[in-house]
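Here is the promised in-class demo. Please do not try to memorize the tokens; focus on the logic of going from shape to residues.
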């Protein structure tokens, strides 16, 4: 299940995704990974969740990030839940328009996983192809 948590800057997306991750620790069947664009929130994530600072890996595009996620999955067959915060900063994009292919491929890559992505943006500007991924 792929879900996008979308909102304008400063509305609490990061706080919400951190809370979601920390609350799900006991419910996750396998392992969980939290990917952020920097290490600022590393100590707010509970210990059982693997924290990854994406800025350490020189990711510069959506296709490269998709390969990074595939590598995580290949390394950890028990990966059950993936939280991604600061998505647009990680993939070096201005907005979600033009990234429909990324989300389609990510959804196909992770059919048995929970993937929650937080991103800045206006839900009204979301491309039609991505609206079914929008989280309440």
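The designed amino acids, position by position:
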């Amino acid at each position: 299940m792929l879900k996008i948590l979308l909102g304008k800057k400063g509305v609490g997306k990061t706080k919400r995704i951190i809370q979601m991750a920390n609350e799900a620790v006991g419910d996750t069947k396998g392992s969980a990974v939290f990917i952020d664009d920097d290490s600022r929130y590393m100590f707010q994530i509970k210990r059982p969740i693997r924290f990854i600072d994406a800025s350490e890996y020189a990711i510069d595009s959506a296709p490269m990030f998709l390969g990074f996620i595939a590598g995580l999955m290949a390394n950890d067959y028990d990966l059950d839940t993936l939280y991604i915060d600061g998505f647009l900063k990680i993939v070096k994009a201005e907005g979600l328009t033009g990234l429909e292919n990324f989300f389609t491929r990510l959804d196909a890559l992770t059919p048995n996983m929970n993937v929650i992505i937080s991103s800045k943006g206006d839900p009204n500007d979301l491309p039609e192809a991505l609206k079914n991924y929008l989280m309440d």
